[in-house]
Design brief:
The chain has 143 residues and is mainly beta. It has helices spanning 21-27, 64-70, 108-111; strands spanning 10-17, 37-45, 49-57, 75-80, 83-88, 95-97, 118-123, 128-131. It has 2 domains: 9-88, 2-Layer Sandwich (Alpha-Beta Plaits); 95-138, Aspartate carbamoyltransferase regulatory subunit, C-terminal domain (SH3 type barrels, Roll), CATH 2.30.30.20. The strands form 2 sheets. It has a 5-stranded antiparallel beta sheet, covered by helices on one side. The longest helix is centred in the first third of the chain and has 7 residues, at 21-27. The mean pLDDT is 90. The structure holds zinc ion. The site of zinc ion (ZN) has 8 residues, from loops.
């Protein structure tokens, strides 16, 4: 069991919207990591009321593009020697590759195998993305 308060080296993804941490866990493919991962749900937050937190032990890198796509409000803390060495706030990526799948049954990515699933940001305000092949808009399951 990972003692979450004594993380020496690792990453803390903080201020995750409450209830969405497992989606981030899945899309970052954290189950594939060998290191300790702790998911804390519904932690108290002075800023947002409730939040989720993910803590990952060890020298790992997380995909900030995926995080920015999923939840641009998160903060990524890089822990070294038990202290926060740096903080990063992900931004909305212009493109996301192989994170979400196009739902259009006639899209080339559905018909043919081995084609990268690429979505392009089409509206920054509403965080909307479209498939670059067929322009089908991606519908977010949460909002
Ligand atoms: Zn498509």
């Amino acid at each position: 069991m990972l003692n979450i308060d004594s993380l020496q080296t690792g990453i803390v993804i903080d201020h995750i919207e409450a209830g969405t941490s497992m989606r981030i866990y899945d899309l970052l493919q954290l189950e594939k990591l060998d290191c300790c991962v702790a998911v804390i749900k519904n932690a108290r937050s002075s800023k947002y009321g409730r939040k989720d937190i993910i803590k990952i032990e060890g020298n790992v890198d997380v995909d900030l593009d995926v995080l920015g796509f999923l939840d641009p409000n998160v903060t990524v803390n890089y822990i070294e020697n038990g202290h926060i060495a740096k903080k990063k706030t992900p931004t909305l990526p212009k493109y996301i590759k192989n994170v979400i799948k196009c739902k259009n049954p006639r899209c080339i990515t559905t018909i043919e195998e081995g084609i990268d699933q690429v979505f392009q940001l089409c509206d920054e305000k509403t965080r909307r993305y479209r498939c670059i092949y067929c322009e089908q808009e991606y519908k977010r399951p949460v909002d």
